[in-house]
Automatic annotation (TrEMBL):
Protein's name according to its UniProt entry: KCNKI protein
One record GO biological process: stabilization of membrane potential
Pfam family, one: Ion_trans_2
Listed GO CC annotations: plasma membrane
Taxonomic superkingdom: Eukaryota
Main location (coarse class): membrane
Keyword list, A-Z: Ion channel, Ion transport, Membrane, Potassium, Transmembrane, Transmembrane helix, Transport
Location in or out of the cell: Membrane
Membrane topology classification: Multi-pass membrane protein
Gene behind this protein: Kcnk18
Species this protein is from: Spizella passerina
Length: 388
């Protein structure tokens, strides 16, 4: 019997773990599939577009040739030439110098999709065709809410981990302080008093039939007859002695559809609980800022190893702009496909920043409430006490 029960226990625990992880994995897998489908779609549309030489591009080349012919001998001394070239290059469209097949390959399109649904939007990669622009709007319309769902769901897990670890740290800190303040003699006296108090506790067991009959014998007026009283006491004794039936197990064995509905309802409850842990989170904002600083610093130390033009400060600035979804586009990546392998870092980092923003929002609300209540108390007219 023990050998057969062990595989059943393992099976049930595996099912519980699966249905507990399923709601969280569902969002992540759907976001990954959505990103890959968008990459295939945009790479097919934008990479196959026809490159036509526009009239603006021809005028740009003519002006560039004119300035090149008028090139003076002393290039550094001629400020007008430098100013004209600078104005000409600023007026140039970057699309003229981009090969669509190189820019809109699979990895480039995947990087573009990530910048769309994370609302970063660097601006160095954008759709040019009309169909690409329309599909980009539709893609963002469904991708941004999906990304926010993933951030909220994963933020609940991070919030639970952070709050639990912070509470455990506080408990450990209080225990250490208590052990320092508490001397050996006082602690032993307290433990003796607690043990004496616990020993005084008496557990009252339910009365048996004989004891109940003995207690009823002293009563002169009995509402029930002896036979009825005896039957009632036997029924009560049988209810106390019989083991409690697990009604849920009986339902599951007789009708497995009920068990399936129960698991489905648990999964639906998990979906309904999304965002609840973030509301319960109570961690100091200084600690969250420290976590963000350490998190960005680790990436800023790794990123310059494949982006050679970046140093630590530039990489720190780039990671901060990315995780806060500002995305100016002034810092460009030479190898975006390597940074895509860092996508897990981006998602987790955005969740940490999202939690920090939520904590900052709660603190601001509390501060505004205090300020408003303080101003209201100041403006309230003072009560005048009239003599009787």
């Amino acid at each position: 019997m023990a050998t057969t029960s062990q595989p059943l226990q393992v099976k049930t625990t595996c099912k519980k773990i699966f249905w507990a992880v399923f709601p969280h994995a569902c969002f992540i897998v759907s976001l990954v599939i959505y990103a890959f489908l968008g990459a295939l779609m945009f790479s097919h549309i934008e990479s196959t577009r026809k490159v036509t030489v526009s009239e603006e591009y021809r005028k740009f080349l003519q002006s560039l040739m004119y300035h090149a012919r008028e090139l003076p001998d002393h290039l550094t001394e001629n400020e007008t030439f430098n100013r004209n070239i600078h104005q000409l290059l600023n007026a140039a469209d970057p699309v003229w110098f981009i090969n669509p097949k190189e820019r809109w390959n699979f990895f480039g399109s995947l990087f573009f999709c990530c910048t769309v649904f994370t609302t970063v939007g660097y601006g160095n990669t954008y759709p040019v065709t009309r169909s690409g622009k329309c599909l980009c709007m539709l893609y963002a319309l469904f991708g941004i809410p999906l990304m926010f769902l993933v951030l909220t769901d994963m933020g609940d897990i991070l919030a639970a981990v952070l709050s639990k670890s912070y509470n455990e740290f506080r408990k450990l800190q209080s225990k250490i302080l208590a052990s320092k303040l508490c001397s050996g003699s006082t602690c032993s006296k307290r433990n003796e008093l607690r043990s004496r108090e616990q020993s005084k506790i008496v557990i009252n067991e339910p009365l048996t039939i004989v004891e109940m009959l003995r207690s009823q014998s002293g009563v002169k007026q009995v509402k029930y007859r002896n036979v009825e009283l005896f039957e009632m006491l036997i029924a009560r004794e049988n209810e106390n002695t019989q083991p409690a039936r697990n009604k849920s197990m009986e339902r599951w064995s007789s009708c497995p559809e009920l068990a399936r509905e129960k698991t489905v309802s648990r999964v639906i409850e998990n979906f309904d609980k999304i965002g609840k842990e973030l509301e319960k989170l109570d961690v100091p904002i200084v600690l969250m800022v420290l976590v963000i600083f350490v998190y960005i610093s680790c990436a800023a130390a790794i990123l310059p190893k494949w982006e050679k033009k970046m140093d630590f400060h530039e990489a720190f600035y780039f990671c901060f702009i990315t995780l806060t979804t500002i995305g100016f586009g002034d810092t460009k990546l030479e190898h975006p496909k390597f940074f895509l392998f860092f996508s897990l870092y981006i998602i987790i980092g955005m969740e940490i920043v999202f939690i920090a923003f939520k904590l900052g929002q709660d603190r601001l609300i509390v501060l505004y409430k205090k300020v408003i209540s303080f101003c209201a108390e100041k403006n309230m007219p003072s009560k005048k006490i009239y003599p009787k």
